[in-house]
Amino acid sequence: MKLTLRVWRQKNADADGAMSTYEVDGISSDMSFLEMLDVLNEQLILSGEEPVAFDHDCREGICGACSLVINGEAHGPERTTTCQLHMRSFQDGDTIDIEPWRASAFPVIKDLVVDRSAFDRIIQAGGYITAPTGSAPEAHATPVPKPDADFAFEHAECIGCGACVAACPNGAAMLFTSAKVNHLNVLPQGAPERETRVLDMVTQMDAEGFGGCTLAGECATACPKGIPLVSITRMNKEWLRATRKAGKR
Amino acid sequence: MTTYADYRTGEPVADTKAPSGPVHERWDKRRFEAKLVNPANRRKHTVIVVGTGLAGGSAGATLAEQGYHVVQFCYQDSPRRAHSIAAQGGINAAKNYRNDGDSVHRLFYDTVKGGDFRARESNVHRLAQISVEIIDQCVAQGVPFAREYGGLLDTRSFGGVQVSRTFYARGQTGQQLLLGAYQALSRQIAAGNVEMHPRTEMLDLIVIDGRARGIVARDLVTGKIDTYFADAVVLASGGYGNVFYLSTNAMNSNATAVWRAHRRGAYFANPCFTQIHPTCIPRTGDHQSKLTLMSESLRNDGRIWVPRAKGDDRPPNEIPEDERDYYLERIYPSFGNLVPRDIASRAAKNVCDEGRGVGPGGQGVYLDFADAIRRMGRAAVEAKYGNLFDMYQRITDEDPYQVPMRIYPAVHYTMGGLWVDYDLQTTVPGLFAIGEANFSDHGANRLGASALMQGLADGYFVLPATINDYLARNPHQEPVTDGHPAVREVLAETEDRLNLLLAVDGDRTPDSFHRELGELMWEFCGMARTDTGLRKALERIPQIREEFWRRIKVPGTGEEFNQSLEKANRIVDYLELAELMCLDALHRAESCGGHFREESQTPDGEAARRDDEFGYAAAWEFTGTGAAPTLHKEDLVFEYVHPTQRSYA
Amino acid sequence: MARTVWDSTVGKKAVMAVSGLIMLLYLVAHMIGNLKIYFGAGEFNHYAHWLRTVGEPFMHYEWTLWLIRIVLVAAVVAHATSAYQLSRRDIRARPGKYVHSRPRASYATRTMRWGGIILGLFIVWHILDLTTGTVHSGGFQPGHPYQNVVDTFSTWYGNVVYIVAMLALGLHIRHGFWSAAQTLGVGSRARDRALKTVADVLALLLTAGFVAVPVGVMTGVVS
Fold this sequence. Notes:
A: Ubiquitin-like (UB roll), 2 domains, two-stranded antiparallel sheet, C: 3 helical TM bundles of succinate and fumarate reductases, oxidoreductase (chain B), steroid dehydrogenase activity, acting on the CH-CH group of donors (chain B), FAD/NAD-bd_sf (chain B), Fum_R/Succ_DH_flav-like_C_sf (chain B)
């Protein structure tokens, strides 16, 4: 199939960006979206232009590197990552708009590549269980009820791609932050740091310049891993609980 | 004139660090004999760690917990994205929670046997011992392993073994283990013990007075090339499967760190030992940029078959039962669909070569769940494999609940890597290699669910114990500065290389060269290798290399974010490594594990090892680009698991 | 603790939720009181007078009413200030718009900010109209609320302003109530349907209950 692509081009963080239009031909419906961009880039290199920069790595939907807003939707029309989106979701002759994640906490580095290090700093603020190597007790010493283990897993599935921030009208990182808080706070191993974790992570989230939550629900709709909106509710509960407990101390 | 294939055999290389004595006491003995660094002095030592996968992430976190100053690098935008994240199936540990007869010794035995007797017994036994601690460590970090209703950990059996020792977190075990390590690392970054450099790629190793003292790395955002100095350097940069262009590796996984270390004196061992994974989604066309693995766990319930007749192009559901060939169950009745990866892969290749392959181009076999759905019910199959089925459907647009999946082998893992001793130190003092980057534990074939185990064993437990010994014995190394002639030289070489890539301004893209090399390697150094084929490849690779330097086109400059330049620079190293892989495959005129030489097979087509001639690990020494390398043999001694022809019949 | 709450986006949202619920509670009482207008001037005016004498003899005349007013003013101020500060933050966090825009979120979610501003302006008008009488259309008579209400809804603009505001109120409550539950952490997957239903019912009842007054005047049932 033949497509018209309108792609956000931006030389670097300080430059102004704009949409540029390109035509690509000979696209097969079995190609992934990123393979379609590979075709465009091969074309651009040979014609002496700079290829479009975009983040990608595993191309199997798990590393969380790929990050495109396609026709106004984070990761495009299917509920999956951009690398797992296939061209069969588009029609011959379509015009496709491709933009980077837009949020002030995710500044553009080049073209479609953004800086998501704010997420790393949120994790550094408390998204871990303190268990230095060698200090672990026997794994079966603390059974974890299956529903809790499943709950933890469901939230641990977050790949940190940032689609939630990209989709949120307020550029909020609540879904990302809540996923990690919920994963660790429900486990008995996570209990000793339960309060400090949620308080510190939310403080860091705010410090990074993410917006607040208005429960628009766009984040959960965009999430390729299906982290539910109620994850945020649960974090709010943890936060209020922690604030009350900290107040009593 | 000597050609590349006229290699010289040098002095044997020996592992001098593994203690003697009963195999199960060696690790304790080594830990006791290793010198320690006084806790107060540890912060005076800087250790560079390259890579943040399971091995690098766990090593960085643990070294920092011990008190060392760690400077860590990854090319990804975050240490959470290393390709360990894509491992699906699980992690082995000899916990024997099922009471099914498992033990440390059995895991040791299975791994040595699975590796087709080309691994070091001491290392493998240590790995089996540590496997138990890894699970404890990960659970303490909050890794959400699958659990049973009683709240205890669930396990499953995995390709090539008959006990249920694989711990898993649905189909995302690698992700969960990696996030555990990443979180531990994050804690140390926040504490200021780890200085993390994401989007920074190692381009060379700095060796001063024969010791590894730092690296040259490029900031991928600004393009700035910088030097970083340390008392020891740890490479945890993963495998080199991307030499084949199409593999299950991440697009940017590369061999530059290990190859540059090799050029600076580290021996490269068994480069031809690559693992071809049997259950990948077949390629659909020339546009294909990478291959996707379907977890091997699918073989627990799926049945593999092809039509009995050649060229049978009926849809699978219309082929009656008696016209199907469940070839693994037929040839290997006791292991059936669960034979080790190399055997399953080669069997798939054989039936496809016979013209019985299915799907586009006949490059595929069926993996059928119809029986499992009948037996367990659709809901149970969905609970067990739902996410894998979804992934398959997304990629192929076919519903595996209705139509059998199509699978085909693809390059997945490289058992070869930098040669290391028992301490995981390379032949360059102060340079360590851990995880897939080293060659140590899997021999000629890796068992399923053992890569995660090895990465974490190296990073959490082995390296943090052994690196102490090196640092304790070299406590006061001269500080290094940019002014040192050796540093200036490495830096200039790196800059020249990148400038040259930018200056050629030819007419071919980096990908076109990568693809060409990959096709060549897959054809001649893939699942089945021959003397003629490998010689052909050895003739062709220097030609591609020459053409590369004449016709490569890299747009943009070096002083900016430039993905084409990154790619081209990695291909420079693939073009040299590929040559060594072919030479290693050529010299090893036997079949073992993932290395199958057509000249060396049993009458019924199984791999025939030749222990008398090739019972060694081949460690290659670099002598110059395109120049014949020197082979150093490390003889493998088997005191506990005696080599037998592997039999899975 | 107050500092922690006010300094955090999550805490500020909790302030909005609690103040919103206080106002919601008040509105339910207010709406029920309003409906007394259908039972004639006597009953309505008597009710209005009672509001000033609640709590006697413990409370002095109008003390309870003023207490309620103070709480309400505090709630409005807290609600509006948090909303203003959070909105500014949200806009800063997402400065650039996508070139390819598409409709996002539900109608009620998107109208929270504008709806809030409309309601704020309405409250000012409403107090100046029926409490102080400053902008009242007829001759404002303190102590005769029945007549005052009839006067207000005898003008077209009184009806328009009031009905538009009440529709905005409905939408505001529809998202606001459910949202407050999430912010305060009482939502869950199991409870989600129930919470949404309660929000819908509350929004509908309050809008209908309030709009019933101008409708009554317009149709002549109340005069």
